[in-house]
Amino acid sequence: MDTSYSLMTLFVDGGWFMYPLLLCSMVALGVIFAKAWTLRLAHRGTERVLREVEAAMRDGDLDRASEIAYSTPGPAAAILLAGLRRIQSRKLGAHELEAAISVTGTIELGFLERGLILLATVANVAPLLGFMGTVAGMIQAFGAIEAAGQVEPALVAGGIKVALITTAAGLVIAIPVNIMYNFFVTRIDSLIVDMERGADHVLKLAWALEREGRLEIVHVKPAAVSGPSS
């Protein structure tokens, strides 16, 4: 007697609930591959660009520092580039540099977090779809008992099998997706630290240049409010 049970047989026996579960797994798999590649590119070269840009800034070569940041992909390099381009103008408005760094950081963080909501959704929805398949299978089993008017193992076996297959499929999808979601969040937190280090480099450079008189910070005084004319 052949006891082999292929994945295709499992899929067919699981009923129509296996189709949305399959869709969830395909979406999650695509996001995982894309996110892993994106975060790998974002993290690669971060230490090098921070080190080389800091060395160029110590030498006073802002053009070279900007070129290094421009040629390096990643959020830390984007923060450095945004700050250095403002500093190269030699004249800044009050809080202009901080605002540029903040805006760039927000944009980069949004790019890094793109797709995570899909993983979180799949991790939450897949078990629920599996449990829904469980309920549907049990309804089928009890319906068969009601129709037959007696309890026989052969009558309820099909419904129980559907219930077990869909539940298992939902958990098999949700567990690795949840693990990858937490892994990506950890990687993004590490990149946020790198972004903060880049912002710290730029701000320290601006303060040093201002002390040396090589950078002018323009503080705009608020206009005086004139009283009513008599």
Total DSSP helices: 8
Assembly type of the chains comes to: single chain
Q: Between the first and last Cα atoms, what is the distance in angstroms? A: 108 Å
Strand order of the largest sheet: 1-2
User: In percent, how helical is the residue content?
Assistant: over 70%
Assign the structural class, choosing from mainly alpha, mainly beta, alpha/beta, alpha+beta, or little secondary structure.
mainly alpha
User: Would you count the extended β strands for me?
Assistant: 2
| Mean model confidence by pLDDT | 81
Strand content: under 5%
Overall, the morphology is rod-shaped
Account of the 3D structure:
It is rod-shaped and about 95 Å long. Helices cover 77% and strands 3% of the residues. It has a two-stranded parallel sheet with strand order 1-2. The mean pLDDT is 81. The protein is built from eight helices and two strands; from the N terminus they run αααααβαααβ. Helix 2 (18-43) runs antiparallel to helix 7 (116-148) and helix 4 (62-70) runs antiparallel to helix 5. The protein is mainly alpha-helical.
Topology of helices and strands:
Blueprint (H helix, E strand, L loop, with lengths): L6 H7 L4 H26 L2 H13 L3 H9 L4 H14 L2 E3 L2 H17 L3 H33 L4 H59 L4 E3 L12
Parallel strand pairs: 1-2
Helix pairs in contact: 2-7, 2-8, 3-4, 3-8, 4-5, 5-6, 5-8, 6-8, 7-8
